[in-house]
Amino acid sequence: MSALMIEIDRDRETDSKTLPGPMLLLGAPGAGKGTQAKELVKLWGIPQISTGDLLRANVALETALGKAAREIMGRGELVPDTLVNEMVAVRLLEPDTVRGYILDGFPRTLGQANWLDARLEGQPEALPVVAVSVQVNYNQLLRRITGRRICPLDQSIYNIYVNPPKKDGFCDLDGAELIQRDDDTEEVFKERMRAYAALTAPVVEHYRAQGRFAEVDGDRPIAEIAAEIVAAVERLRMQPGAGSYEI
Ligand code: AMP
Fold first, then answer.
1. pTM over 0.70, yes/no
2. 113 lines ligand 1 (CB under 6 A)
3. Is 192 noted as a catalytic residue in this protein?
4. Is any ligand 1 atom within 6 A of the Cβ of residue 72?
């Protein structure tokens, strides 16, 4: 069978029987994609590939890509597909992606989704992607975005309203001073939501039409959402054409 051989990793503490192959987390800004991706990384031992994180790293390092992306990101708009696709292509060449990966924040446009499909079709051993969208209502998203604080050292995510650090302003794990992303303001959030509705909503329909899409309610405890994502991915992999597991 052509499906990527996906084995149970019994060394990891997980009740999931499977690895997901390539999967995507979709959802509006603040839906908790990053938080969930980190849960899934712990569970499955495959990498999180966050295009937002990769772009921010490029901005910090002042690479050519970072210089091109900086102002666009600051306005809450999307970085052009060609630049983002190229960045993802390079990341997917890393050997840690062989057993699967979690794309977080990519694809965000139909152009990116088509590019990813074409790329995977060119790799006969790879499963097609399955997509899970995390749903959270507008007011919650706004609260999560404006309350979000991040540890610059270990990337832990806090929220001053619902998940504050023990000591105000500092990471519980390493004591570093927490930071707020430049684009986590109400004004930029509104632009990011506009971009999401106009450009990313069609991506959801793209995967839904192919039977490779599921939605989970993101307004619940983190572990519950993660368990539901795992169940959704397992279900989706049983669909015809979405690959199947070899257990
Ligand atoms: P995020 O961390 O996913 O919220 O992304 C932060 C910002 O990075 C977005 O508002 C965009 O400007 C840019 N960005 C991240 N991922 C993409 C993508 N797949 N396509 C275009 N722009 C992106």
1. yes
2. no
3. yes
4. yes
